[in-house]
Design goal:
About 0% of the residues lie in helices and about 55% in strands. By secondary structure, the chain is mainly β. It has two domains: about 1-90, Thrombin, subunit H; about 100-175. The strands form four sheets. It has a four-stranded antiparallel beta sheet with strand order 1-2-3-4, with no helix packed on it. The protein has a four-stranded antiparallel beta sheet with strand order 5-6-7-8, with no helix packed on it. The chain is globular and about 45 Å long. It holds the Pfam family WD40. InterPro entries: JINGUBANG-like (IPR045182), WD40/YVTN_repeat-like_dom_sf (IPR015943), WD40_repeat_dom_sf (IPR036322), WD40_rpt (IPR001680).
């Protein structure tokens, strides 16, 4: 069994699969043999907080989890999971973060969706810290899923969001 509670998010990077769970942990799994994976490390953030989503920087150096307390927590490390440390705790939303996504090498690369019906646009600094550069409102229900895509018009990216109000939104973001 991977976790002792429901798994809410998965992401893969550099041969490692990260699972975010209602038990408040992000676990890192590495492939072992042909058909199995072994636990490589466990990332823990705030006590009594559910982790609803997980994203990993393209270089694998930073892992971010979205919590039920509205915080984005960031861990810094590398392939040696014993050295990982919690380095970033950003109050991102007034309510639970339900989803996150990122868009490659854009300066404005992280997005978060929340039970507070908003989406946060974040800039990741060179040292991994996050700074909010914008907020998108417009949904009548909580933001359940996000996906970013490169824009064919100008710079920036397109951010798509899905919601419990049965709507989908698309928005052009310039960062």
């Amino acid at each position: 069994m991977a976790h002792d509670d429901a798994i809410n998010g998965l992401v893969a990077s550099k041969g490692i699969v990260y699972s975010a769970s209602l038990n408040g942990k992000i676990k890192a799994w590495g492939k072992e043999g042909k058909n199995s994976h072994a636990l490589k490390g466990i990332l823990e953030g705030h006590k009594e907080v559910l982790i609803n989503s997980v994203i990993v920087s393209e270089d694998g150096k930073w892992v971010y989890g979205g919590g039920s307390d509205g915080f984005v927590m960031g861990w810094e490390g590398g392939m040696n999971f014993e050295s990982w440390k919690l380095f970033n705790e950003t109050k991102a939303h007034q309510m639970a973060i339900l989803c996150m996504c990122q868009m490659g090498e854009f300066l404005c690369s992280h997005c978060s969706g929340s039970a507070d019906k908003s989406m946060g646009i974040w800039k990741r600094e060179a040292y991994g810290k996050l700074n909010k550069v914008g907020v998108i409102n417009g949904h009548e229900g909580l933001v359940k899923c996000l996906q970013a895509s490169p824009s064919n018009i100008g710079s920036g990216f397109l951010l798509y969001s899905g919601n419990l109000d049965k709507s989908m939104m698309g928005s052009q973001e310039y960062c």
